[in-house]
Amino acid sequence: MKFNINKITFIATIVVLIFSFSACKNDKQTEGQSAETNKVDKEEAHEEEMPTIATLTEEQIKTVGIQLGTVEQKELTATIRANGLLKVPNNNKANATSLYGGVIKTLNVQIGDYVKKGQVIATIANPQFIQLQEEYLSTASRITFAEQELSRQKELFEGNAGAKKNLQSATAELNSLRTRRASLQQQIQLMGINPGSVSNGNLKSALVVTSPLNGTVSNVFAKIGSYVDVSSPVIEIVYNSSLHLDLNVFEKDLPMLKVGQTIHFRITNNAVEDYNAKIFAIGSSFENESKTIAAHAVVQGNKTGLIDGMNVTAIVSLNNVTTSAVPNDAIVNADGKYYIFVQTNKKAEEHHEEGEEEGSHKEGEEKEHKEDKSSKNFEKVEVLKGVSDMGYTAVAFVNEIPADAKIVIKGAFFVNAKLSNTGGHGH
Prior knowledge:
By secondary structure, the chain is α+β, with helices and mostly antiparallel strands. It folds into 4 domains: 49-74 and 323-350 and 369-424, conserved putative lor/sdh protein from methanococcus maripaludis s2 fold; 79-88 and 243-317, Efflux pump adaptor protein, beta barrel domain (Elongation Factor Tu (Ef-tu), domain 3, Beta Barrel), CATH 2.40.30; 94-126 and 212-238, CATH 2.40.50.100; 128-204. The chain is 33% helix and 34% strand. The longest helix is centred in the first third of the chain and has 47 residues, at 2-48. The chain is elongated and about 125 Å long. The chain starts with a helix and ends with a helix. Mean pLDDT is 77; it is low at 42-47 and 351-362.
């Protein structure tokens, strides 16, 4: 019996030790799991706190070609689209021609030059010009003789010493010479020569070609040494101050068009610059076989870069309802959301590695302080996208921004990449 009690006591002691060891082990495992869980939670929290402010130096901004702008008000909701063509009214373009054929002696202009009405653009040489001046001088001398002859015949006739036929002949000759002189005088004036300045010692062999209006030289048809006749233009001049825009509008859209509506358009080969025009007339018949009606508008405001004959893409505003809009390039997509970058005075968030020494913090702060003077900060701001047209997209801001805030309108993808790299560096 005594042996059994000792045996039971031994077994109980072994069981207690086993349970104590298991409990200790479990505590250590639990402690390790808790530490691991805390570490994961910290890492996840760190990943969630992505930076929202990117810092770029002036050199980076210049190299990448980042451009700043503002949020604009655009009419994107109630519009119709149409294609068109820029035209200059017929009274605002002309060809400079010569009234006489000849060889181009001098050419004073080239394409793109601005000329004024009456400005000499070329000179033309032809021996015929000298002949006309010679004939003019000769006719003037013959008129003087014919006047004397007529006076003599009158005296003879009045004294019954001359025949009436001779008097009539002298009168007819004088009238004929005067008519010829008047004709030659007009021809010389058309040549750009003052008839009063024509003399035996001042005969001109070349005539000038002048500009018929103010404008820009759009084409040059002749060159020095080439022969031009009366029907051949020397240059073409266009006055772009009153450019017109002819839109081809479909029949279904015609009821929505009215005189006075605003047109926003862009050149087909340059989808950057925006231009405006206003409708002043709407056609009443179809254009050829296209089943479109012409809507005529006059270009307003800036006309830089616009040339007669350019193709354009336009939208016609049906009302005056505007919405906040930014260029398409200003919007970036990240994590299923849309953002723009706004210039801000806020400082970029600091990200440090664990175990980083305090001295390295100070050095980084000093370096950052030096760069602040030549750097710009951009804050990532979430937006909601709306309709897009003419290179712009309507946006609504999740959080309001200042009305005069500067935003990145070109190069936003680079700013976003810079921000993403900054966020990933801390891990």
